[in-house]
Amino acid sequence: MNTLKCYAAGCAKRATIHFIRAEARRVVEAVVLCDEHGTARLHEHWNRPGRIGPGTPERIGTGVVFDIDDLVLDELNIQDQPNWAGWLELIEVGGARRFGMRVDSFAWVVLSAELQGYQFPRPPTHQAMARLLKAIGARLDYVEIDKVTPGDVYVYEAKLHIEHAGTHVLVDLRPTDAIALALYCGVPIVVSQALLTMLR
To answer: Most buried by CB count within 10 Å: which residue of 23, 42, 86, 195?
Structure first.
């Protein structure tokens, strides 16, 4: 358990919500807040009118390019719901559409470390995968979040779009792993139009 205090002025409560905001895949704001101030901050951030993602709108294949807008980790959920303690929010590049999903605390740490340029002492799985692709002469073109299984918790699916020996190869992967790989390799994150239409 951390002993950090809430960053809000005049608040001495223990911080439980970690909030990271990114632009162009770099952290532009990182704060820790108590539950009360954290909830208010997120509501204000996500509901700001007319908010447009940085960059020029782009389509790849049948999808739309998005990028990371923010990452949230709620410590109060880690013990009871470790697989759903975090939240990842994407925003359309050059657009206003948003796309979010719950993430586990480990995925949150990996994604936040990539955004902050943290140098791992040993390569984590997504970096090892990037090295493997390079070693066999393959190229990752982009990652695509393309399907969802609705239920009590939505389960999303992602694909790696890889070029190898003149062939286009698709590899199924968890979205958080695909996004971590996209950050490391510097390739686009695409959300399929079919998925966006379904979730509208």
So the answer is: 86
Q: Are 27 and 68 in contact (CB under 8 A)?
A: no
Q: If you count DSSP H runs as helices and E runs as strands, how many of each does the chain have, helices first?
A: 6, 10
Q: Quickly state the pLDDT bin for 177 (edges 50, 70, 90).
A: very high
In a domain, 51, yes or no: yes
pLDDT score recorded for residue 43: 81
Range of the domain at 158: 17-199
Nearest-CA neighbor of 182 among 22, 1, 11?
A: 22
- d(C-alpha 172, C-alpha 94), whole Å: 27
Residue 181 lies in a domain: yes
The pTM of the whole model exceeds 0.70? yes
23-74 confidence digits (pLDDT tens): 999 999 999 999 999 888 888 877 777 788 999 999 999 999 999 999 999 8
Strand partners, 139: 163
Number of structural domains in the chain = 1
Is residue 112 domain-resident?
A: yes
CA distance 165 to 26: 33
146 in a structural domain: yes
Q: 3-state DSSP call for residue 15?
A: coil
Segment among 38-47, 77-86, 147-156, 160-169 with least mean pLDDT: 77-86
Q: What is the DSSP string of 40-63?
A: HHHHHHHT-TT--BSS---EETTE
Query: At 99, which CATH number?
Result: 3.10.690.10
